[in-house]
Amino acid sequence: MSEVVLDGGAEAPGKDGFVEDWSKDKQVFGVPWGKAMMWIFLLSDTFIFSCFLVGYMSVRIATTDPWPSPSEVFALEAFGYPVPLLLIAIMTFVLITSSGTMALAVNMGYRKDRKKTFWLMLATALLGATFVGMQAFEWSKLIAEGVRPWENPFGAAQFGSSFFMITGFHGMHVSAGVIYLLVVAFRVKNGFYEKRGGNYEIVEITGLYWHFVDLVWVFIFAFFYLW
Amino acid sequence: MSYVAIADRDHEQEHHDPQTFLTKYIWSQDHKVIAVQYGITAIFVGLIALGLSAMMRLQLGFPNQFSFINPENYYQFITMHGMIMVIYLLTALFLGGFGNYLIPLQCGSRDMVFPYLNMLSYWVYLLSVIILIISFFVPGGSTGAGWTLYPPQAIMQGTPGTDWGILLMLASLAVFIVAFTMGGLNYVTTVLQARCQGMTLMRMPLSVWGIFIATILGLLAFPALLVSAIMMLFDKTLMTSFFMPAISSMGVDPGYTGGSPILFQHLFWFFGHPEVYIVALPAFGIVSDLLSTHARKNIFGYRMMVWAIVAIGGLSFIVWAHHMYVSGMNPYFGFFFATTTLIIAVPTAIKVYNWVLTLWQGNIHLRVPMLFAIGFIFTFIHGGLTGLFLGNVTIDLPLSDTYFVVAHFHMVMGVSPVLVVFGAIYHWWPKITGKMYNETLGKWHFWMTFLGTYAIYLPMHYLGFAGVPRRYFAMGNTEFLPDSAQDLNAAITISALFVALTQILFFVNMIWSLWKGPKSDPNPWDATTLEWQTPDHPPKHGNWGHELPVVHRWAYDYSVPGYEEDFIPQNVPADKAPAGRDHGEDH
User: Is B180's pLDDT higher than 80?
Assistant: First the structure.
């Protein structure tokens, strides 16, 4: 197959194509099972993160103690000055960059360039691991300053509770993603998928998960660090 | 090149038949075996929950006669009875049991799309059940917080099981959600992506539609329960204050500050209300198929039935706060949620009318599954009508937390789905086991269960009107209640014990059938859907032998004029039988 189309689907564009897809027998979407399942899983996961964020907003409104100022709590000392959100800016940059390398890996996967796919996925995993590492640094800094899930010196106790819970849950997603990326990357490298018909859709499926984790971070960043 | 559907591939995936006993029946990846495993486990925990309800009824009917029931374990019985029945029995049985069995067979697939994940789903579910059962035996016993687990009381001293029980309950729920997600992703993907040739969505039997939409609801609603379970676990173990306000417990300040108990209620009911329909929609779907098959008539208004399922599913996400009228939330919310709640009555009523119209002028065979299906229509209308009372804020306020509520939800999501469960088991039993059960025994089982449940729940409405509060261990000196309320309670208890014992008939029947029952015909009900057309009976691993079936018509070609038989299976080609009324091709 020299010609590569990433996504099969309806012939007709727009509403007609939509109706055509859903009226078909056999399958609704012209995509592999794993990809369809990943999309549905991500939809479900979206609801988990939405509930976390709504819960966080709700307790932030409900609590009577003052909420700590994020730009002071999350400031980092640089050149003798406290720079607000410095670490978070770098972390966000790292994670967004990893989405870029992931997108390139997907492209290389469909070109069946196993070597480049492997290295790009490895780079993605390394950037992800860097993100988790910086998060660990941020956690230990806050813990050293006395922030705990049940109390903190800056104000409302819910600040620490929500922070550790939500960033922790997201960090677990990133860590799981790093493991997932490494498994797929090494399978790409050692020819595992060649034995299964040379099909590299798995790279894109992994990529879906990875982009999702990035997107969630953007929302956590906006609601937690910028609010 | 678009992705090639499985039914179009030259050589399908090879299916290696499992050889050993272990891979065939224990670590099985076959959806039919997994379905039976789910079913047996769910019914087993359901029996525990039935036993708990018998204990509760003993106390209520004959207060203080039994030394083994004290107020603490009464609350534990209530909690575990509710939680087990709703989640570990009904959700698991309808989706894990019937979903697993029916989706691949009725869609014409060889199996779920990811059988290994499907197998994991069952074993993780079993783990959640084991954690749940362990909680009965830890110090302090299982939690007694009520099945809604409302904080602050759920994790405060004074509630039974506040040390270990609540932790294990929350952990078990989290594990259950993981199991459900693994199964649910499989069910949805299989319905969307792995149907056989000719099987359009609008030709699927309504059973599959009900299970499909219910699974989507589950995938979107269980996240809220997961999140609230995690947050409550942290409130309990890490002393966070998500749900816990500043509070004093027995004169001691436990150290909580500024949390919101109402937040828990919102999260819980954002899960809890769709959960009602996670149980109800598969029942709706299955009952439609039972009625149509045994009335030898196509289901009335198939398209309307499908869209009603979809509409109910969508609406179920915007009604949750009707469980919270008395919680102290903003009264304007009540106005909104009462409106959306009453709107749900429209698609639901459409379904009920269509069931009745399906029966109208049908060639009704009052076989056991049909009896249960018709029984469902009675109990569901009954429970649905009382729902209209409770959905209105002004009527709900005086009735809230009385036995009227208990009667309502037991009629609508206790008795009704359970009747469908029995009907469905009787209906598909010949396909699952290849054996027939005893018809007479089945009919006795139906009549005693059906009339018995009315004897239990009808009087409860009057108790509710009289103001008998639910969840009370004993009435004590309540002067506004007449003495006859206690007589009624005793009568209810006797009926409840009677109905509980009646279920022995069911198990005797099924065990006898497995052991000595006559072999059944491959299609004993002359049904049209694909699971009755399998080449082997009961179907083997891979379901369809060498060739996948090809579907030529919708699932309801019963009594088509001009055809010698009164049913045309879905895989009979158009040139061999009249076209019937295929709604799958007319758009």
Answer: yes
From the list A23, A31, A65, which residue is nearest B3 (CB)? A31
pTM beyond 0.80: the answer is yes
What is the chain A residue with the closest CA to B112?
Answer: A33
Q: How many domains does chain B have?
A: 1
**Among residues of chain B, what percentage have pLDDT more than 70?**
95
Q: Do B185 and A157 touch (CB under 8 A)?
A: no
In percent, how much of chain B has pLDDT > 90? 84
CATH number of residue B374's parent domain = 1.20.210.10
Q: Considering CB atoms only, which of B1, B8, B198 is closest to A5?
A: B1
Using a CB-CB cut-off of 8 Å, the residues of chain B touching A42 are none
Let me know if residue B64 belongs to a domain.
yes
The pLDDT value given to residue A227: 83
B314 lies in some domain:
yes
Q: Is residue B552 part of a domain?
A: no
Compare B254 and B380 and report the one with higher pLDDT.
Answer: B380
Q: Which residue of A has its CA nearest to B267?
A: A51
Q: Under DSSP, is residue B164 helix (H, G, I), strand (E, B) or coil? A: coil
The DSSP 8-state label assigned to residue B200 in this structure reads: B
pLDDT at position A157: 92
**Domains of chain A as residue ranges with CATH:** 1-30 (no CATH), 32-226 (1.20.120.80)
Inter-chain CB pairs, A–B, below 8 Å: 158
Range of the domain at B110: 32-243+260-533
Quote the percentage of chain A above a pLDDT of 70. Answer: 95
State the greatest distance between any 2 C-alpha atoms of chain A, in Å, as a whole number. Answer: 66
B19: pLDDT strictly greater than 90: no
* Nearest neighbour of A28 by CB, restricted to B193, B255, B260: B193
Interface test with B, best of A31, A48, A51, A196 (most B CBs within 10 A): A51
> What mean pLDDT is predicted for residues B391-411?
95
Residue B135 resides in a domain: yes
Give CB contacts under 8 A, 24+ apart, made by B538-546: B538/B32, B538/B431, B538/B432, B538/B433, B538/B434, B539/B32, B539/B105, B539/B431, B540/B17, B541/B15, B541/B17, B541/B18, B541/B30, B542/B15, B542/B17, B542/B110, B542/B111, B543/B104, B543/B105, B543/B109, B543/B110, B543/B111, B544/B108, B544/B110
Provide the ipTM: 0.93
Alpha carbon dihedral B379, B94, B400, B68, in 10-degree steps, equals: 100
Cross-chain residue pair A149–B238, CB shorter than 8 Å: yes
B260: chain A residues, CB-CB within 8 Å? 58-59, 62
The beta-carbon neighbor of B200 closest among A3, A25, A43 is: A25
Contacts of residue B237, defined as CB under 8 A and 6 or more positions apart, other chains included, come to: B167
Report the residue from A8, A29, A32 with minimal CB separation from B192. A29
Q: Under a CB-based contact definition with an 8 Å cutoff, are residues B341 and B276 in contact?
A: no
Q: Cβ of B491 under 8 Å from any chain A Cβ?
A: no
The arithmetic mean of pLDDT across residues A117-138, rounded, is 97
Q: Which residues of A touch B186 (CB under 8 A)?
A: 37
Summarize the confidence of residues B38-57 as an average pLDDT: 96
